[in-house]
Design a protein that fits this description.
single chain; 362 residues; alpha/beta; TIM Barrel; Lyase, Ornithine Decarboxylase, Chain A, domain 1; nine-stranded mixed β-sheet; eight-stranded parallel β-sheet; 10 helices; 17 strands; 25% strand; elongated; binds pyridoxal-5'-phosphate
Length: 362
Amino acid sequence: MNLFMPRIEISLSQIRENTQILSDLYFGKGISLMGVTKAVLGEPSIAKAMIQGGVKYIADSRVENILKMKNAGISIPFVLLRTPLSQVESVVRNVDISLNTEIETLKELSSHAKTQNKIHQVVIMVELGDLREGVMPCNLSQFIRQALSLSNIKIIGIGCNLACYGGIKPDDKNMQELSEWVDSLEKEFQMDLKIISGGNSANHEWFNSCQNVGRINNIRLGESILLGRETVGRKEIPGLHAGAFQLVAEVIESKKKPSLPTGNIGQDAFGNVPDFKDRGIRQRVIIALGNQDAMPSGLNFNKKFEFLGSSSDHIILDSVYDSVKAGDEVRASLNYGGLLSTMTSPFVRKHFTDCNGSLVIK
Ligand SMILES: *Cc1c(COP(=O)(O)O)cnc(C)c1O
């Protein structure tokens, strides 16, 4: 079979195994998992692998991705991680639970839920220091009071998100603060909060070291499941597969060339003025992949190649071997940015390498 290039090779069994190990680990302390599919554009077969591995919910930041999974026949509670105000009608129609931080959005959700004769479930996000989304703790009680007055909306939980914008680590202090808020809100409003969602792949270190998870009973995991890493120090989690995704691109030129350009230096394709070191004549390889397909800093090539630079549709590598020729394959492993960008590129074909032993191409 002539394999398409560039392509991303995806091992569903490795994703399923990663999910299984994480879900056993977290479930041991009473924590359920939401499998987060945004980095893979809600790819239904990956969502299915997560479900086989034991996640109780599928969470994504985009309604379009959730619709794709529903249309593929996946039925599990869907959670919307980011509320798009202009899409509330569709959110109520297609999503079971959404994360929220604005009363105006809740009012819109309430009004559409009334029209659609539905109860829309919400988790209220609390700001605990990372400064992305969340209601400020000092306003939380008033916020909940207002939210409770809205019809057709049910507050089923609270949550927080750390280590995404401010890089703030989940620790005993902020996790305990979330637990204390649960106790205090349940008491003040005589309510029962079912989901206490403590964070994302950055919670791994806290989870491993803490004696007591408090009221936290849910975590939302994307990167740990997909790439087998925690995200505070980007350390591999023992026992997990870190290479479930492999990028393969084809060499379209391989020649010995000087390492210093000739002529007067102006700007490159992206407005930067490049700077070069003279390393003599080198074997230079061009692969058919560029910034339009992949965030270059997100690709890790094997040791035979060193990344020199890239433009919209070419990546230039220094090769230790002169035997590399046009038509050869170059492989790269991916970090989160690499995964996000290559999965988003329409030019990178997705190959599932191990569904029933056959190769399925999308
Ligand atoms: C993306 C996202 C996650 C998942 O983050 P990972 O680091 O991939 O585990 C969890 N929660 C929210 C709100 C998100 O936006």
